[in-house]
Amino acid sequence: MVLIVGLPGAGKTSWARRLEQDRKALRLTPDEWMDALFNTNEVDGRRWVLESEMLWGVAARALTLEVDVILDYGCWSREERDLFRTRAQALGASAEIVVLDLPFEVLWERLERRNANLPPATFRASREELTEWSAKFEVPTADELQRWDRQLVVKD
């Protein structure tokens, strides 16, 4: 299992799509499911249920069948990341993390471009929201990263 972590605009879905092709893996991107299931990409309680229960159920089944899974989840808190890591490892799967920790201004430039030509199943984000989300993002520490079987941190 590979968990892709980062704020909006960091390139999580682009990374997930590349890994999906490279590894012939199952990619689970909640934004796509939110739009299809609820006709919204608003972040609310339904998203957590979707990620932690519905999509995890699909991921867990794939992992037990020895199919690689890419979770394009964001996971801003250590608690969320620990949950998915321990679940994968309990199934006997390796747990990898890709952390996309880009500077705020780079994220905002990317979001401005994305907002100008919004792809389907993608939400619009304001600078104010990005500021709020950045304050909530717990960047993984060296101690946390050591708990993963493999890790990659991208800073630019």
Write the layout of secondary structure elements.
Elements (H helix, E strand, L loop, with lengths): L1 E5 L5 H12 L2 E3 L1 H9 L6 H20 L4 E6 L3 H13 L5 E5 L3 H13 L10 H10 L5 H4 L4 E5 L2
Parallel strand pairs: 1-3, 1-4, 2-3, 4-5
Give the N-terminus to C-terminus distance in angstroms: 23 Å
Averaged pLDDT = 91
CATH structural architecture: 3-Layer(aba) Sandwich
How much beta, percentage-wise? 15-25%
Our Rg estimate from Cα atoms comes to 15 Å
Detail the poorly predicted runs.
none
Strand order of the largest sheet: 2-3-1-4-5
Sheet with most strands: 5 strands, parallel
Order of helices and strands: EHEHHEHEHHHE
Helix fraction, binned, reads 40-55%
Shape: globular
What can be said about this structure in brief?
Helices cover 52% and strands 15% of the residues. It has 156 residues and is α/β, with parallel strands linked by helices.
Q: Would you write up a description of this structure?
A:
52% of the residues lie in helices and 15% in strands. The chain is an alpha/beta fold. It has a single domain (2-154), classed as P-loop containing nucleotide triphosphate hydrolases (Rossmann fold), CATH 3.40.50. It has a five-stranded parallel β-sheet, with helices on both faces.
Task: Tag the structure with descriptive keywords.
5-stranded parallel beta sheet; alpha/beta; 5 strands; Rossmann fold; 7 helices; globular; single chain; 156 residues
